[in-house]
Design goal:
Layout (H helix, E strand, L loop, with lengths): L12 H5 L1 H4 L5 H8 L13 H12 L2 E2 L11 H12 L12 H15 L9 E5 H13 L5 E6 L3 H10 L2 E6 L9 H7 L4 E7 L11 H14 L2 E5 L25 E6 H4 L7 E5 L2 H14 L5 H11 L3 H24 L3 E3 L6 E5 L9 H10 L3 E2 L1 E2 L15 E4 L4 H13 L3
Parallel strand pairs: 1-11, 3-4, 3-5, 5-6, 6-7
Antiparallel strand pairs: 2-8, 7-8, 9-10, 10-13, 12-13
The structure holds pyridoxal-5'-phosphate (PLP).
Length: 421
């Protein structure tokens, strides 16, 4: 497929007579795999780097600072609410938009933390994690001939779903220091072809937060070209050093064209529950439902009420999660610096981007991540997995996750400090 979704151009007359053969060179799964950089020349798809690195962690007994899942338990009240719901028989299909209690809790949360007013009946949709909210939003709004704009580096699902949609993926490079875009890069990326702009702040994989002037510029261009902003805010509560997360929807002119996505996964350390949500104008939510109902229809009935309990917890519970992770960020940052890495400061999220010391004598990021998994037994993710070949992403940088117990972080740091390549 060409990047602009013109794959069908190569179909032959024979292909056209046979609907299966017609798509053989470019089936939707292939577009998704290719867009995520996972399709081999022989037409087979490789596992994602997260799966590969987690398998290496198991094989080598390595400390896994790769995939961004926490090892901690969720808040007890949240876990107890899920158990109680299962025992009370909340085990059947919930309503299509999600149970009313959770939709109300999401609306209350947006009001409490950000002063955003939402109608829980029409402007809130519960999804199977943020992943489904992202997929359904992009699939609902973009198709062949359209551009989906993201920052680069980007969370891999954005590229895969854009490929699935048959749209063209255009990126706004983030550059050091601070992994911010330039005004010129924003202006170049967002055009009359742009249908969807996916933002993500705090940002995976860089840990940066998008400066407000860049958000304002993006909102103005979105308005000029009538594009929808899909704002992935799953790390909204994981912001450090006294920073405050400001949803894109708060920026002037943004609310009417922004779908805001979040999830219980990171805030409450329940990545396996897959309870996410998307909020925004009723007409846009209806469009997302138009796709979402054919993907999962509904999910996780007993977990939905438990997440409502979590969202209603007092402010100091959220502050405690933040403080714990900030401490772990500092531990990992200090350990990496001590081992000779140069790190980029993390404002939010679970991640630190670090360049290995030249003394390690490692090659590109993919080979160094594999080498470090085997010896000294520390797993990271190559930053290049979040970018495209020839793009702006450093070919040697690694992403380390600090959502792990202090003892694991300390041991990883000790191993890296003793490693001399
Ligand atoms: C930026 C970003 N968006 C979305 C997700 C997926 O969230 P969920 O597990 O709720 O589907 C992740 C998970 O790592 C993420 O980092």
């Amino acid at each position: 497929m060409t990047a602009d979704g013109a794959a069908a151009d190569g179909a032959s007359a024979d292909d056209a007579a046979d609907p299966v053969a017609a798509s053989a060179a470019d089936r939707p799964w292939m577009r998704a795999a290719r867009a995520a950089g996972l399709l081999d020349d022989d037409g087979t798809a490789r596992p994602t780097i997260f799966a590969e690195m987690s398998a290496l962690a198991a094989e080598h007994g390595a400390i896994n600072l790769g995939q961004g899942f926490p090892d901690d338990g969720a808040p007890a009240a949240v876990l107890e609410a899920a158990v109680a719901a299962i025992e009370a028989g909340v085990n059947q299909y919930p309503p299509g938009r999600g149970i009313a209690d959770l939709r109300h809790a999401i609306a209350e949360h947006q009001q409490r933390f950000y002063g955003l007013h939402l109608d829980p009946e029409r402007e809130v949709l519960v999804t199977a994690g943020a992943t489904e909210a992202l997929a359904a939003s992009i699939l609902a709004l973009a198709g062949p001939g359209d551009d989906v704009v993201t920052l680069e580096p980007f969370y891999d699902a954005y590229a895969a779903v854009t490929g699935l949609a048959g749209a063209r993926h255009v990126t706004i490079p983030l550059s050091e220091p601070g992994f911010q875009p330039t005004a010129a890069a924003i202006d170049a990326a967002i055009t009359a072809r742009t249908r969807v702009i996916v933002l993500n702040s705090p940002h995976n994989p860089t840990g940066s937060m998008l400066a407000p002037e860049h958000v304002d510029r993006i909102v103005a261009l979105a308005a000029r070209h009538d594009a929808v902003i899909v704002s992935d805010e799953v790390y909204e509560h994981l912001v450090y050093d006294g920073r405050r997360h400001v949803p894109v929807a708060i920026h002037p002119g943004a609310a009417e064209r922004t779908l805001t996505i979040s999830s219980a996964a990171k805030t409450f350390a329940v990545t396996g529950w897959k309870i996410g949500w998307v909020t925004g104008p009723a007409a846009l939510i209806d469009a997302v439902i138009g796709v979402k109902q054919w993907l999962t229809y509904v999910n996780g009935a007993p977990f939905q009420g438990a997440v409502a309990t979590g969202l209603r917890m007092p402010d100091d519970t959220f502050a405690a999660v933040r403080a714990t992770l900030q401490h772990r960020r500092d531990l990992l940052a200090a350990g990496l610096v001590e081992a000779g890495f140069s790190i980029s400061p993390t404002a939010g999220s679970y991640f630190i981007v670090a360049e290995p010391p030249a003394a390690f004598g490692l090659g590109d990021a993919a080979s160094s991540a594999r080498a470090l998994a085997a010896d000294p037994g520390v797993v990271s993710i190559p930053l290049s997995a979040f970018g495209r070949p020839g793009g702006p992403v450093s070919p040697t940088a690694l992403r380390f996750a600090f959502c792990k117990p202090e003892a694991s972080i300390a041991e990883a740091a000790r191993r890296l400090q003793q490693y001399r390549g």
